[in-house]
Design brief:
Layout (H helix, E strand, L loop, with lengths): L4 H6 L3 E5 L4 E4 L6 E5 L5 E7 L7 E7 L2 E2 L4 E3 H4 L3 E8 L4
Parallel strand pairs: 4-8
Antiparallel strand pairs: 1-2, 2-7, 3-4, 5-6, 5-8
Length: 93
């Protein structure tokens, strides 16, 4: 087991920076899709387009169709549920 929970959470595409702030940094998901249960029985579907061993760079991230521009995600937005979409590539931006 990794020594840090940060590594485990990064496998889903984001990890906490500071638990008090409620912000997550964007990482590279290891799965092409997964579904998380969030508050109130809602679901957060995470989709990684073009996921492969070579596609380790995140080209873009969108939450419910809204492009995220600062490479941060807010806990309050994720707990609403919906779809978090990662566009992956094999070349750095």
């Amino acid at each position: 087991m990794p020594k840090s929970g940060r590594n485990c959470m990064n496998a889903i595409g984001f990890y906490p920076v500071d638990p008090v702030s409620g912000q997550y940094d964007v990482g590279t998901p290891l799965f092409d899709s997964l579904i998380l249960s969030v508050v109130g029985g809602r679901k957060l579907t995470i989709v990684a387009k073009h996921e492969s061993p070579e596609s380790i760079y995140v080209k873009s991230v969108a939450l419910n169709g809204r492009k995220q521009t600062n490479w941060k995600l807010n806990h309050s937005d994720l707990r609403i549920g919906g779809e978090l979409t990662f566009e992956l590539t094999d070349a750095p931006a």
